[in-house]
Design brief:
There is one protein chain. The chain is an alpha/beta fold and about 190 residues long. It contains seven helices and five strands; from the N terminus they run βαβααβααβαβα. A five-stranded parallel beta sheet has the order 2-3-1-4-5, with helices on both faces. It is globular.
Length: about 190
């Protein structure tokens, strides 16, 4: 399956040195987007939306079709382009950038659903750097939408994230609790980066 043509894609991460990037990853419907928004509001900073949701929602609205293997590289390109653009903007403001997903998450889900991941995504995911990686706990109710499909597998997927972080030597912290608790916890951790 990995014979995809990645020559049209550039998944290089460009982050100004002064920007502190936080990646918020985890199983679906575990509060990643809410936490990104809440932290961006708290710090008056930028946050990077999950490009895959925008891309796949448009596909669903247009064709009532879900993600396929051929969508993975365009999704990765859209995600890294958005992240790189917002990283430049963050350099001019607070210096924080909160990322609602990363290519590492896309790599995990590609392997989860297809048993494989395009080489270009895997290579980029393993070298991309974040100052802080957060893994959201499965401690809030699952909420259905057009794209979510794994309400009963969230703990298993979360365990896969932790295993892959360990396997690839990626330091991470677990984040749980209600919305206010999560923000307070991240604010405490980020004090060490100033």
């Amino acid at each position: 399956m990995n014979g995809n043509d990645a020559t049209a894609f550039n998944l290089t991460q460009h982050t100004p040195e002064s920007v502190i990037k936080i990646a918020i990853l985890g199983a679906e419907s575990t509060g990643k987007t809410s936490l990104c928004r809440d932290l961006a509001t708290h710090f008056d900073s930028h946050w990077v939306p999950e490009y895959m949701r925008t891309y796949l929602q448009a596909k669903w609205d247009r064709e009532q079709k879900t993600c396929t293997w051929d969508d993975l590289l365009p999704i990765a390109q859209g995600q890294i382009d958005l992240e790189n653009r917002l990283a430049k903007q963050a350099e001019q403001t607070t210096g924080y950038l909160f990322c609602d997903t990363s290519l590492f998450e896309l790599m995990i889900y590609a392997n989860w659903y297809y048993g494989d991941c395009p080489n270009a995504i895997t290579q980029a995911a393993l070298v991309h750097y974040y100052d802080l990686i957060l893994l959201t706990e499965v401690d809030i109710p699952w909420v259905a939408d057009d794209l979510r499909d794994s309400p009963h597998e969230r703990k298993e997927i979360s365990a896969r994230f932790a295993d892959e972080f360990d396997r690839h030597d990626k330091q991470f912290r677990r984040i749980g609790g209600n919305r206010d608790d999560r923000v307070r916890q991240v604010v405490r951790w980020l004090k060490y980066f100033n």
